[in-house]
Structures are given as C-alpha cells and as structure tokens.
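Dear H.,

Thanks for agreeing to be a second pair of eyes. The structure we're designing against is below in token form, covering all 510 positions.
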C-alpha cells in the first residue's frame, strides 16, 4: 500500500470465519465483498494457530492486492510482519500501541479499539492512525462486557477527540437498516467530528450475497455524506467553529513545511510559515527529497521561477507516498506555453491535495479563459465563472481548489465558499498569493481530516492579518505593510485566534 494516510476507511470489512454460511468459504466471501466495494479488510482470527494464520493471510493479501485495498491483521503483529500486511488492529487488552509502533514503525497502519472517551484520547495521544469506536449496538460476534454506545455514545467519543488528524470508524451491530442513522447521527453537525466509515462483520461475512450487501452499504454511505453536507448548507459555522482549533493544531504539531518555491518570495514565505507556528524548509536538492518527505507535514510546489521541474515532481511524489498534503501554486500557469505544459506535468505525474492560484491561473487550468500578465491576473472574474472553474477542477483532480482575488473562491467539488476578507493592498506586494499558499500548507499539514477547512482557514488567516495590519499606525504603504503582515500572522495565531471568528466574512455558495 503506497500511502497509508490516504486510506479510504468508508466500508471496512472485519472477517470472522465462524459466520461464513455453510455453502460458502471465507476467501469467497471476502472476494465478493471486494467486488461490492469494500475499501479495507481486517483479517480477524482469534483461535487460529500461527502457521495456518500466515497461510490464510497470504491468500487474503493476494485478494486485497488485486483490488488495491489495504489489509489489516487483528492483534497479531507477528502475522502482519510475516505477510507484510498494511497494518494491525489492536484491542485494549492486546499489545500496547506504543510497543506496537516501536515494532512496526510509522509506515504501517495501527488502529485501536476504543469504547470510551479516555481510551480514545489515549489512542490519539499515542499516535493511532485510526480508531475503531464501538460496540455501537449489541452484536452476535462478541459477547459485550460493557453497554453498547449507541449513536450518541459514538458522537460523544468523536467530540472528545475533536481536531484529531486520523480516522475513525464505528463497529458493532451495524447493518443495512442502521448504517445511515449512525453515519449521520454519529457526526456532529458542522464539525470535523465525523465518522470516516463503518466496520462491518456479520452483515457482510454472513451474507448470502456479500457483493450485493456491499453495494447497498456503499450507496448508503454516499447518501449519508450528501445529507451531512446538506446539513452544512445554510451555515458557515462548519468553518468558523474550527478556526481556533485549527490554529492550535498548527502550533501544537509545529509541522515541517517543505517549499520548493520561487526565489522572489522565498524569505517572506519562510517567515510567514514561522509566524503561524510551523517550520519551513526551502530545499531544492533532489538528493534529500525522499528523506524530507518522511518527516514532512506538507509540501508547497510553487511554479514562480521554474528551475528543476523533475526534482519538484520527485518531491511531490515522495510526499504523496508518505500521505503528506501537497499544495500547488501554479504561478503564471497560463502565461506561457511552457508554464501551461509544466502545470499539466505536475497534475499528471503527482497527486495534488490543494491547488491555489489567482483568477488567471485557475481559469487557465479550467480552460475557461484566464488572462495573465506574467504572474499577475488580469481583469475581473465573474462569480458564476469562478464557481464553475473551482468546482470543476476540484472534481476533475479530486482535490481542493482555491482561486484568490478580491473575492476568494474555494471548493472541494461539492461545497463551494466565497471569502470576502482581505485588503486590496495585498495585490501591491509581490508574493501575497504565494504567502497564502504557504499558510494553507501549514494548516493542511496539521488539519488533515478536512482539507477544505484547512484551505479556508489558511486564506482567512492571511486576509484578516492584512486587514489588521492596515489598521496599524505605522503602516504607510506596501513596504511597511509587508512587515506588519508578518506581525499580524504571528499575533492572530499566537495571541488572538478568535480574530478569525470575529472578522471572517465568508459565504456558502452551494
Ligand atoms: N482587491 C483585493 N481586495 C482584497 N483582497 C485581495 C484583493 N486582491 C487580492 N486579495 C488577496 O490577496 C491575496 C493574494 O491574492 P492574489 O490573487 O493577488 O494572488 P497572486 O496573484 O497569486 O499573488 P502573487 O503571484 O503575487 O503571489 C489573497 O489572499 C486575496 O484574497
Ligand atoms: C514576480 C515574480 N516572478 C516570478 S515569481 C514572482 C513572485 C510572485 O508570484
């Protein structure tokens, strides 16, 4: 598995050979479930001896590999290591997470079962990649020692770990009749406390037609996501309520943000990154790209003064492999034939998490016109065109797209917002857009569960900092503004994170 931080946890199959119908086999049930859309498989064999477990594990791995789905082994690190599985799932009575991590390292997934807030908080602190929250309901697969959590219990646990960068799935008694109730009710409206998926045992493994059941679960999961977004529709609370937490996450994680950026803005961008509590490194030598990606929180690819394009791609690919968000700033993207071709190479050869450009750059990428003079956008962009461009690009490249300008537009392909903050003087200093990209990368690094949120808060931070900077007495023009902007980035993040909540002027479009 290339990238364990980008695993799709939505339909998680947990096996139990004792539940396989008499006319079927475990491997057959798993294969059918994979054909039906299962996104992750956990092999759970509580009674099996080590040798047969490894043999079975190898066969299951062949199936999951064929369907490009990760394989997790329940409890047994030795088996996981022997078959080079993608990770392990540990219960509260199994090997402690800290010890398991020492053995497996950071390239493997470790999931932890949690039944209450304390267990969840501990697992988060110790660096669990995902939490299995349960049991939600009474279940035939395990005799429960504790009361089941119910939907509200799941929600309570998720709220207690608000801001957690990993993933959460619910488990226990989930079937086609209660899945939607759990997905929608388990998540807090307008919040990052959302379930990423459902871990299902008997409803799939004991089914007469696992493929059909999985297809039904997949459409329930899609419907649930839609109705969760629906719930956010008339509100911008989803963004605002998380501003201070998102800022705190950056300050706590102090993520390293690797920039390959242009040599006009390099110093300003490094200072801006430091000002919000992250740690910049502006390296361009290909020899260390892989090693940097290993410790990196996020990566900025900025096309301002293009030099070694192959190294930029190599670095983006390495960051993709380690699951780090990659933020592309297609500076001057539409201005020359050469730049247009480079943007295409970046998109084709690496996966972008967020694309942030000005009107000329984004419209050019979306083939909707877009006029530039060098790195500057020309002309006004009407709202309808802007919204179509960011939405279409986000859908096409499965990423977040932000178009900056007097009004900024941000979309994940489903939700689109406008940001009305920012002082026009930003357009009078070089690299203010590049600075936005750097700050978005800092937020993305530390707020991985919602990159739309991270992008919105990154842009808001720079824009509101610009408004506060312009209110300072000593600011008399672009030169003094430039220093004051860095000061205000620092002040907002270190002293008054509530400034975002107070001054944000954002609009939900559709
Ligand atoms: N007229 C304006 N009023 C308010 N804010 C603005 C205005 N123009 C730009 N901004 C803000 O300035 C920042 C940079 O946006 P812009 O689109 O100018 O970037 P850019 O062209 O990519 O910049 P650069 O290439 O110099 O880095 C954004 O945060 C945007 O919201
Ligand atoms: C002026 C300029 N030229 C290339 S990059 C850059 C900085 C703003 O994008």
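And this is the sequence the design step returned. I haven't edited it by hand at all.
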């Amino acid at each position: 598995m290339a990238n364990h931080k980008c695993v799709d946890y939505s339909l998680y199959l947990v096996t139990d050979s004792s539940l396989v119908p008499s006319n079927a086999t475990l491997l057959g049930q798993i294969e059918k479930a994979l054909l039906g859309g299962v996104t992750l498989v956990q092999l759970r064999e509580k009674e099996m001896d080590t040798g047969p477990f490894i043999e079975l594990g190898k066969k299951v791995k062949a199936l999951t590999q064929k369907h490009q789905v990760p394989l997790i082994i329940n409890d047994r690190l030795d088996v996981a290591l022997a078959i080079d599985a993608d990770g392990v799932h540990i219960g509260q009575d199994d090997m402690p997470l800290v010890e398991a991590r020492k053995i497996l390292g950071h390239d493997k997934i470790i999931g932890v079962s949690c039944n209450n807030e304390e267990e969840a908080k501990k697992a988060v602190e110790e660096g669990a990649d995902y939490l299995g929250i349960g049991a939600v309901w009474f279940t035939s697969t395990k005799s429960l020692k504790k009361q089941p959590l119910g939907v509200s219990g799941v929600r309570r646990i998720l709220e207690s770990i608000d801001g957690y960068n990993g993933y959460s799935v619910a488990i226990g008694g989930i079937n086609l009749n209660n899945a939607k109730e759990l997905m929608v009710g388990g998540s807090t409206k307008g919040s990052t406390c959302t379930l990423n998926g459902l871990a299902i045992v008997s409803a799939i493994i004991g089914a007469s037609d696992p493929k059909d059941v999985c297809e039904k679960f997949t459409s329930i999961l899609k419907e649930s996501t839609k109705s969760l977004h629906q719930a956010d529709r008339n509100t911008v609370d989803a963004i605002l309520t998380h501003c201070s937490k998102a800022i705190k996450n950056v300050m706590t994680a102090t993520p390293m943000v690797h920039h390959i950026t242009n040599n006009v803005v390099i110093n300003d961008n490094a200072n801006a990154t430091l000002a919000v509590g992250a740690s910049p490194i502006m390296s361009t030598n290909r020899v260390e790209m892989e090693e940097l990606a290993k410790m990196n929180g996020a990566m900025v690819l900025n096309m301002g003064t293009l030099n070694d394009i192959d190294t930029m791609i190599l670095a983006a690919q390495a960051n993709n492999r380690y699951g780090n968000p990659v933020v592309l700033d297609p500076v001057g993207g539409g201005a020359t034939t050469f730049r247009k071709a480079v943007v295409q190479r970046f998109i084709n050869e690496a996966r972008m998490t967020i694309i942030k450009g000005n009107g000329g750059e984004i419209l050019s990428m979306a083939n909707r016109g877009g006029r530039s003079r060098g790195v500057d956008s020309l002309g006004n962009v009407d709202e309808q065109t802007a919204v179509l461009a960011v939405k279409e690009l986000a859908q096409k490249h499965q990423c977040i797209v932000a178009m900056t300008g007097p009004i900024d537009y941000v979309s994940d392909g489903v939700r689109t917002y406008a940001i009305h903050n920012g002082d026009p003087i930003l357009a009078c200093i070089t690299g203010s857009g590049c600075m936005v990209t750097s700050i978005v990368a800092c937020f993305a690094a530390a707020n991985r569960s919602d990159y739309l949120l991270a992008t919105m808060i990154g842009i808001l931070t720079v824009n509101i900092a610009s408004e506060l900077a312009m209110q300072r007495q000593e600011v008399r023009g672009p030169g003094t503004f430039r220093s004051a902007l860095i000061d205000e980035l620092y002040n907002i993040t270190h002293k008054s994170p509530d400034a975002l909540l107070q001054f944000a002027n954002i609009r939900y479009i559709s």
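Two observations from my side: The domain at 4-232 is CATH 3.20.20.70 (TIM Barrel). DSSP finds 21 helices and 19 strands in the chain.

Warmly,
E.
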